[in-house]
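step: validate -> pass
step: tokenize input -> pass
step: predict -> running
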Amino acid sequence: MKNSEKLKNEINVLLEKEGYQLVEIKFSKYEGDDLLSIIVKRSDNTYISMNQISNLSTKISDKLDEIDDEDKPYMLNVESAGIDDSLDLSHIEEYVDKYVSLELNNPLKNQNKFLGKIKEVKENEIIFEYFIKGARKKLVIEKNNIKKGNLEYK
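step: predict -> pass
step: emit ->
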């Protein structure tokens, strides 16, 4: 690939049209062969099935055939960002009503890890809903107390 910036832009346009976001694109070697790895996630932060990845891989491959003017062979690997996709905490409002795990800097209710849903995002805090022994609980968590979070798929 002579122009990797052009490639990245073209792949971004294709992914956005299909409802995906580019997480990472990288060139590397795998057992001596050139490898192009493309990691994606859904724009709506929902689960990506193997069938969806397969279809997307075909579309990306077709696009690469269209824009790549080199005859140098390489392998293409398209994959999901993963089952435990890290949350972009600067855009936490995108995860309202999504099932997430949160790790806190300072414990609340004697724990620093919670699994549940973000119900509401306010300026400096979130309202988080989780279950303990079948009982629904709500917790107010200051945004600056969130160390990291992952999108979870049930």
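step: describe -> The helical segments are 4-18, 50-67.
step: cleanup -> pass
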